[in-house]
Design a protein that fits this description.
- By secondary structure, the chain is mainly beta.
- The chain has one domain.
- A 5-stranded antiparallel beta sheet has the order 4-3-2-1-5, with no helix packed on it. The protein has a two-stranded antiparallel ribbon with strand order 6-7.
- A hairpin with a 5-residue loop joins strand 1 and strand 2.
- The N and C termini lie far apart (about 35 Å).
């Protein structure tokens, strides 16, 4: 299976194509890397292909914040220019400017 280049970048704010939530990308898998049970739990008519990038998002909707795992085919750029209200955003990202978050430098020994 060929690995596709990711269309979206870490720190980019995106929105779901179908469901009413948005989020900031904090990690990318070049292809599906979650459990088979997770994938099978998605209704078959909505189940995404596995051979595409999948994104880890700090997500929010009108009711809550959470972590989401979303296929590239179901994401669109968010053009609001607004930051995401997820409380963990400040732990992963150091700043927000013009619709994009800048990731904190990793500290290692």
């Amino acid at each position: 299976m060929d690995t596709l280049l990711a269309k979206f970048a870490i720190g980019q704010v995106v929105k779901h194509r179908i469901f009413p939530f948005r989020g900031v990308i904090f990690d990318v898998d070049p292809q599906f890397a979650n459990s088979e049970e997770w994938w099978q739990a998605i209704p078959e008519d909505m189940r995404p292909r596995k051979d595409q990038p999948f994104y880890h998002l700090l997500a929010e909707n009108g009711d809550s914040t959470y972590v989401a795992y979303v296929s590239e085919q179901n994401l669109l750029p968010d053009d609001t220019g607004e930051p995401v209200g997820h409380p963990q955003a400040a732990l992963i990202f150091e700043s927000f400017d013009r619709g994009t978050y800048r990731i904190r430098p990793r500290v290692s020994h």
